Amino acid sequence: MADTIPWDPLLSSPEAYSVYARLRGDAPVCRMELPNGLPTWLVTRFDDAVGALGERSLRKDPDVAREFWQRHGVGLDAARQMCLAPTMLATDPPVHTRLRSSVASVFAARRASSWEASIADAVRRLLDAVADRESFCVVEALAAPLPMHVLANVLGVPAGQEADFRAWASSIVAHDSETPESRLDAAAALGVHLLDLMAAKRAAPGEDLISSLVALPDDRLSDFEALTTLFLLLIAGYETTVNLIGNTVLALLRHPAERQRLESNWGLLDPAIEEATRYWSPVAIASWRFAERDVEIAGQVVPAGDPVRVVLASANRDERTFPDPDRFDITRRNDHHVGFGQGSHFCLGASLGRLEVKLAVGGLFRRYPGLRLAADPADLRWKQSHIMRGLQTLPVAP
Predict the structure, then answer these.
(1) Which residue has the higher pLDDT, 396 or 336?
(2) 316 and 43 Cβ atoms separated by less than 8 Å
(3) More confident of the two residues 387 and 327
(4) When you count CB atoms within 10 A of the terminal residue's CB, does the N or C end of the chain come out lower?
(5) How far apart are alpha carbons 224 and 202 in whole angstroms?
(6) 340 — phi, psi (to 5°)?
(7) Burial readout 196-228 (b: 16 or more C-beta within 10 A, e: otherwise)
(8) CA 196, CA 190: separation in Å to the nearest integer?
(9) d(Cα 288, Cα 65) in Å, to the nearest integer?
């Protein structure tokens, strides 16, 4: 058994990239103790990450994960319980295939594009609300409310409940400001309201995702699976898009030459979003996988039963794949990053998320061509998390 490397606190900060670089060079597949005390194998190089994400012997199984966590004495708070629910995030085929098929058509690229006018209108309204301010926070004014508005419309959440759903989601995924009890309370409140909505849609269905899910027969989707699917979509689809909007705006503000390129050619907006996804991956580390048998990765044998986590943010800065990886370059041609995952677990909402980011970022910079940071970059508050990479605040001045 390889030695277990102690946790480096920098991995929960924006300085994580220096640690990733060191791991890629010295220990690309290493056993590390996470902040909660759980030991796991980290995979940090791009080619190894792609291989691990497609390795069938590295399985997602909530029962195996739950037993492993309990064996190591880790309590299951609201966020951890969600990671271990039998959702698309925590299962492999055939369960994963059945669950994903129940919602896949709603998030297909063609269907996502049908939301463009509605999302663009929401962006305009959100920017109108801060038009008279000398400064505002991009996260508070745009990056956070927009994804919840879109998700609420897709799912069929009444407009008057959007603020509540956003508050619950924010509390559940909070990393450094909420107690486990408050996260559990928020998860319980969200669950109760989702059950109420499911009952209401069953009685009076509409043209929305919740109505579609509750209409499926039990052999395709049970009520519990419908509930956990909705819970997952709201939580995962919310924070990742919030992070990506904020990260993309900051990357452009911090790199004026790339911003000038974009403003001279708005056709570069799509590649700019892909580069931002690579550069500051909104999800830093992939979810739990467990070795069904001894698995060799880059010459290192991961014993059967051990967990493996693929570090997406590190793979996306691997100098073996991306020349000059710490440079933000919106014309970069080698754009096959793993910011949205890989294989069967490729992000279900990638098309919709990309569209939201494109309209939000494009709308913001077109509206405010003189936009600038209203704080020292060193003073920006980032989420203290080794799982997610995103800003808590992003003050700007028009």
Answers:
(1) 396
(2) no
(3) 327
(4) N
(5) 15
(6) -105, 15
(7) ebbebbeeeeeebbbbbbbeeeeeebeeebbbb
(8) 10
(9) 8
pLDDT digits (tens, 9 = 90+) for 98-156: 999 999 888 887 887 889 999 999 999 999 999 999 999 999 999 999 999 999 999 99
Using an 8 Å Cβ cutoff, are 323 and 333 in contact? Answer: no
DSSP reduced 3-state for 165: helix
Domain map (residue ranges) of the chain: 4-397
pLDDT (mean) for 167-194:
77
CA distance 134 to 104: 42
**What tokens does 9 get?**
């606190």
Residue 177 pLDDT: 47
Q: Tokens 């919030």 — which residue?
A: 242
> Could you report the per-residue pLDDT of 42-82, keeping only the tens digit for each?
999 999 999 999 999 999 998 898 888 888 876 655 555 65
The structural architecture, per CATH, of the domain 4-397 is Orthogonal Bundle (1.10)
Taking the CB of residue 115, how many other CB atoms lie within 10 A of it? 18
Residue 39 pairs with which residues in a beta bridge?
A: 33
Give residue-wise pLDDT tens across range 337-365.
999 999 889 999 999 999 999 999 999 99
